[in-house]
Design brief:
With about 350 residues, this protein is an alpha/beta fold. It has helices spanning about 20-40, 40-50, 60, 70-75, 310-315, 330-359; strands at about 1-5, 75-80, 90-95, 115, 135-140, 160, 180, 205, 225, 245-250, 270, 295, 320, 325. It is elongated. This is Leucine-rich repeat-containing protein 23.
Length: about 350
């Protein structure tokens, strides 16, 4: 029985589990010591003059590439599985976090990897991952990436690019992708998400970006959408999200609730906490959402009004929960009485008007 990672290179056997302190004392610390030796004279001089030690700039750091090595692979490889033909085995999981890596070229030889975590490094280029055609799961949070572009990976299902420097959503074409995390980047406009190529995408996380509108989400299979902590002032293009069940818009700049559509027949949970909605009557615009059951409106100006909960239930009788609390039976009774009283008042106003027309 053979144990390998690819036709190009045999996988090293992983070392036993080691504590995080020991991992950090390996290749990562070695690089720091080399840096110290190279600058010993300068630091000694600075110490004599009483000057504070300066942190290297981003440009200076980029002069010291840190490559992924066989030693790092030994520490991070796990999960021995059969390869495609079933006659050989390979390690299919790699975790190489917090290694200050700038270059992962060696990974292009490890074609059997399925689960890769390269978070908290200094990566700007992911092109070597294009060779990992069996990749199912990828996490590259906390790097220096400015783009999501990757060679199309036929089996990739989950990818996380959180807390990078990404400015757009172009170049995402993985046909089996189900979950996309772009939290904490610098994205201003959603573009390039082609429903023809992303037919299985059900969850998109875009919290903590710089979005001003919801436009650009042409994804009819999407079920969960997280857009909190942006600067959104307009709700656009939501009518295309016909399977959406969860919409998170907390901490944006919305003042009205225009933009919801009757085509959104599956939406059950809507979080609008921390926006600028002034008028309780804006909730009437949510009557087009037949499945809405949970609404979060706390920390909006309108939530300070005295009849806040009653008015919500008057306008949205199918609602089960407002903010953190489910509605009690007495609240439902009060809302029904208010609703009936308003119907009676409207009818009384209509009757004199009809009498005048008859005369």
């Amino acid at each position: 029985m053979g144990f390998h990672s690819s036709s190009k290179q045999t996988l090293p056997l992983p070392a036993g589990p080691r504590p995080l302190e020991q991992l950090r004392a390996g290749s990562l610390k070695m690089s720091d010591e080399e840096f110290d030796d190279d600058n010993a004279n300068e630091r000694e001089k600075e110490g004599e003059e009483g000057e504070e030690e300066k942190e290297p700039t981003e440009e200076e750091e980029s002069l010291f590439p840190r490559l992924i090595t066989e030693e790092i692979l030994k520490e991070g490889l796990s999960l021995l599985c059969k390869t495609g033909n079933g006659l050989a085995h390979a390690y299919v999981k790699l975790e190489a976090k917090e290694k200050d890596l700038t270059d992962i070229s060696l990974l292009q030889n490890y074609i059997h990897l399925r689960y890769v975590d390269l978070s908290e490094n200094q990566l700007r280029d992911l092109s070597p991952l294009g060779s990992l055609t069996h990749l199912l799961w990828l996490k590259v949070d906390g790097n220096r990436l400015t783009s999501t572009r990757l060679t199309e990976l036929p089996y990739l299902q989950i990818v996380s690019f959180a807390h990078n420097r990404i400015k757009d959503t172009e170049g995402i074409t993985h046909p089996r992708l189900g979950s996309l995390n772009l939290k904490g980047n610098e994205i201003q406009v959603i573009s390039g998400l082609d429903p023809g190529k992303l037919a299985n995408l059900h969850t998109v996380e875009l919290r903590g970006n710089k979005l001003e509108t919801t436009a650009g989400l042409h994804l009819p299979k999407l079920k969960n959408l997280y857009l909190g902590q942006n600067v959104i002032t307009q709700l656009e293009g939501l009518e295309e999200l016909v399977q959406l069940t969860t919409l998170h818009l907390r901490d944006n700049k919305l003042e009205t609730l225009d933009g919801f559509s009757k085509s959104m027949k599956c939406l059950q949970y809507l979080n609008l906490r921390g926006n600028g909605i002034l008028n309780l009557q804006e909730m009437a615009k949510l009557q087009v959402l037949p499945m809405l059951r949970a609404l979060v409106l706390m920390d909006n100006p309108c939530s300070d009004e005295g009849e806040y909960r009653t008015e919500a239930l008057v306008l949205l009788p199918r609602l089960e929960r407002l903010d953190k609390d489910f509605f009690e039976e007495d609240e439902r009774s009060d809302a029904e009485e208010t609703r009936q009283r308003r119907r009676d008042e409207e009818q009384e106003m209509e009757e004199p008007a009809q009498g005048e027309v008859t005369e």
